[in-house]
Structure formats: C-alpha cells, structure tokens
Amino acid sequence: MKTYFISEIGTERPTFLHYQHKNLESSSFTANASHVQLGHRRSGWQRLIKQVLLTKPGGSDELKEYEEKGTISPATRKVMVNILVADMVQSEGRIPQRLTKEKYALRIVTRFPRSKIHMGRQDILLPPRHLPPPGPCKCAKSAIILKNSLFDAEEVEQRRHKEFQQHKARTESVLSTRLYAPSNSPLQYPIQGFKVRPMTSTFIPGLALHARQRSNYTVFLEVSKGVLKTVIPAGGAQVHGNGESRLMMESSSLETLNELLAYVSYTSTVYHIHTGDLASFQFEDHEGVFPITIKQPQPPVLYDMGTDINSQVTITTKTFLRYRELNRLLKSIRQFYKDIEVIIADDSFVTKKITGNHTKHFIMPPGKGWFAGRNLAASQVTTKYFLWVDDDFQFTKWTNIEEMVKIMEANPELDVLGGKVKRSQFDFSLRYEEGDEMEGGCLNRTFKSRFQSLPGYPQCSVVSGVVNFFLARTDAAKRVRFDPQLKRIGHSEFFIDGLGSLMVATCGHVSIGHQRATNRKDTQKYRWFRHSGRRNQHSKLRHLFFKNNLKCLN
C-alpha cells in the first residue's frame, strides 16, 4: 500500500494522510499520539474536525460510518483526509506550517480514537485516553422510576444536574485519565505511586533515558500544576526552563543527561489537599505520560482498644414510644455485658427517665426521626466500634460481641459487620450503573446475593448491606453518616450512601433475639407513626432521585 505522510502536504505528492510514529530505536511501528493534549483542548479539536466534516460535501458520511462501525475504511479515510487537507490549505495556503499539520493529524486521532490504522499487514488500534461518558442505564421491569414521583420533574432535574457537576468538580481529577505505556520506548519514568505534598519540592524517582548512541540527546518534561527543577549542569549540558512548567535538558553525553534527570524535582504551585498532575516526558518522537498525586498527608485517627470489650465497643440504639421494649433490651444487655456503655437517643413525645450504670439517655426534640437519632447516638461514641441494635431486640447467648470484634480486627478493611436477627440475616447486594448524567443512574438491590466469603471465616460473606444488628467502625460510619431527612422510613439508604466507601460483611453465627410484638395502645401509636403510608414513601423517592442522582431503584 502506497502511503503519504502529513509532512508531504504542500508538496507535489498526493495528499493522503497517514498517522506515523517514527521509532528510531526499532523498525516496528508504534501507534502513539505523542503530542495529544488533555482537557478542553482535546474536546475542542474533536469539535473542529466534526464541524469541518459536516460543512463539506461527503463529510457527514465519514462521521456516520465511524459511529456505526467503530472504524473507517481506507477509502473513507482517504476522502476524509482530502477534505481536511483542503480546509487546512484554504486557511493557511499551499504550504501550511509544520505545527498546523501536526495539529490536524492529532485532531483526527482524538476525533476518531477507535479508528484502525493500516500499516502493511498490521492493523493498529489507537486507544482513547478518556473513557466515553456512560450512556443511559437500563432499569429493570420491576424498578421504581423515581422521576414519576415528582410533580416538578424538569425543574428538579435541572437543579440536580447543576449540583452533580459541582460534585464531579470536587471528586474528579486528572488522576482518572487513562494512560498507555508506549511500546519500544527508551523513556523510563514512574508509572504508579509517585506522591508529593502540596507546594513541597520532591524528586521524581526513576527518570532516565535508554537510547542508542547519538551525537546529542534532548529531553523535555512538562507539567501543568507545578514547576520543575534540576541541578545546574556541568560543562557539556544545557538546561532551559529551570523552575518553570516546561523543562528542557540537552547533552552530548547520555550519562550526563541521566544525572540531570536523577535530580529533577516537582513542586506544585497551588495548594490543594488532594488533586493530581500529569507529567509529559518527551524524547524525539517518544512520549510518556505519568501521574503525580498531590496529597496533603492526613494524621491518623487511632483508638485505644484497651483490655476488654467495654473499652472497645459502645452499644447504641434509638427509641420512640417503646419504653417497655427498651427496658427489656437493657435488661438483656446487662445479663451478658454488665459494664458496657449503652447510648440511647430518644425522640418520644412524652419521655420517661432511663437510669442505670453505664447508660446515657439523650432526649431529642419530639419526632425528629430515625436517622437523626442514629446520628446523635453515633456522635457520642468514643470507642473504636459501636454495635447498633433496635430498641425491641433482645440479647441472647448467641449475641457474641467479642466474636464480631475479632472478625473486624482480623479484617481491618471491613467497616460494617452484620449478624442475624433471630433466623434472618436480611443481607443484600447493590449494583449501581452511573447512567446518563442528566437521567441519572440505576440502582438494583438483590436480597441474599453475596459476593464472596470472608477470608478465614467461611460462615461470613461480603455484601453491600445488612440488617439493623451490626458492628460498625466508628470513624467510617461517621464519614457516611445517617441522613436525617429520613425520619420514619429508612435503613438501606445508609448503605446506598456508603456504597463504594464502606466494606460490609454478614456472619451467620452471631445473632440477636427479637421481642414478641404486642397490641398495646402505645404500640399501636408507634405503628401509626412508623408506617405512615404513601406520603412518606413518596417523599423518600423524591429525596433519592435528587441526592443520589438516581433514575430508578429496584
């Protein structure tokens, strides 16, 4: 196949564009868009290519073929290149500048990232540096479409979208950019784990050049959120841009150049507690890009475990109108754990005094709700762990808190460990698809669906959520917190908010009892508030639609 290169544009040769990366270390072909820039310039280039093709005869056919097939044929590519070359010559004349030629070539690479490049018998696939944004997710047939619970859906959706963009700005950085290691590259650089403190000079480890004999060696380093420095070179070497964002080093000696590279340091110029930068390392036609994590070190929060269960765990509960059940719970706790601290959050309309050693009773404003009470109770915990129980539970000989602590200590990555309530574990898994930004994501909850067993504990499994009997790591639960907007209906929502940040497991060999239901007058009043009907359910769905950016929930 006869191929012409972009450097030939403006000569008497035919103008068929081919992306070529010249590898001076090997005769093999390397597909590497070495000068592709990131961020808004990349998307700007894509828009320019699309705009040119849409305004020229036949250009829309190239776009349509690529969208349908994920690639374009050699014949289509030739037509496309001729359209773009004509546009370039029209804007700059018959002999365009070299920089303009490179930009047009790279615009094609970024606009058609999956396009195959034919080189003799080889097909080279150029991978995109950024994943395409996710498309709409598919809701299960039985899923609740949350938007249907809104009477002002369009207005709420617009506010939600604006808030979601701010969320992305806070949580995303260049560190999520996909990077590809170039093949047959003479460049050596760190590919993972290079961290720096904000505005603190740090040597970049592992920088080196491994190239064959040349009369001269020139390398470039470039960053966007900091400056680069190296030592003042001895004779036979030159450095330009010391203390700037782009650093050039040149020497006729490879050994001298590598000495300069060994002393290159990076300093971020803007204070940020957790962000990142991408460093570009270039030699001739080769480029490597590596991430720099900029992070303020965080002092650890450690808990003194003491010598017994009383200094390791606090029992927490929330009560509302059920003092008889609460007193039974407390009596059962003291039967097995005489000195363990119990914290009670109480939002009853008419309160009764709860007394006893190692018992703290916090009175809330009436009817503040289920999760507000959980927050209050958890906020007063000073131990490493807290055990959550409902006020109508009952401790038994199988309620072994020491065993739960043992499992958590053996698996320090765990944040929450649940058990059984009587014979029910009530565990579930959550599957979440991000979906379209405007429509929102899809969340599917499946009961009794477990990911895998917990190493060393075959009776325990990793899940997404558990029953209301669980041991939680205090600092992890506080970071997620219990949403106080959920007053009467809520449990799974804590684990939805913690999805991706809480590691959760359930064990079948630790359990707690449940008191028998009664039909007393105060119990009936509790049920009326607890099961308050469609209005609260509607309010919860509207809340989930906005807060968790959800399209549907199953």
UniProtKB/TrEMBL annotation:
For this protein, the record's CDD domains field holds: Glyco_tranf_GTA_type
Q: What biological processes does GO assign it?
A: UDP-N-acetylgalactosamine metabolic process; UDP-N-acetylglucosamine metabolic process
Q: Per its UniProt record, what PANTHER family does this chain match?
A: BETA-1,4 N-ACETYLGALACTOSAMINYLTRANSFERASE 2 (PTHR15046:SF2), GLYCO_TRANS_2-LIKE DOMAIN-CONTAINING PROTEIN (PTHR15046)
Q: What is this protein called?
A: Beta-14 N-acetylgalactosaminyltransferase 1
Tell me the classification of the organism that encodes this protein. Answer: Eukaryota, Metazoa, Chordata, Craniata, Vertebrata
Taking every annotated instance into account, which residue ranges of this chain make up the domain Glycosyltransferase 2-like? 318-435
Provide a Gene Ontology MF annotation, just one. Answer: acetylgalactosaminyltransferase activity
Source species? Dissostichus eleginoides
